[in-house]
Amino acid sequence: MMLTALRRRFGLSRADLVSFEKKYRIISFLMDQYELLHYYDNDYIVDDMVRYIEQQGGNLHGIPRTV
């Protein structure tokens, strides 16, 4: 659910999302940080994922798109 929210916000293809997940281990981040995702606002969690990716040296705003 949260990966889909991230993908939609940034217009990522599924291939882009898979690449980001593999490189930055987003699912592990979510599992470590959020015991119950449904208690939080989706936008808040997406913002948190973006901050995490940026802290790891990633940038969702300037990625090449694979459509």
Structural commentary:
The chain is globular, with a radius of gyration of 11 Å. Helix 1 crosses helix 4 (42-55). It has one domain. With 67 residues, the chain is mainly alpha-helical. The chain has 4 helices and no strands.
Task: Compile the SSE list and pairings.
Elements (H helix, E strand, L loop, with lengths): L1 H9 L3 H11 L1 H8 L8 H14 L12
Helix pairs in contact: 1-4
The amount of helix comes to: 55-70%
Helix/strand-derived category reads: mainly alpha
Radius of gyration: 11 Å
Number of strands: 0
- The span between the termini is 21 Å
Summarize the structure.
With 67 residues, the protein is mostly helical.
Task: Sum up the structure in keywords.
single chain; about 70 residues; mainly alpha; about 65% helix; about 0% strand; globular
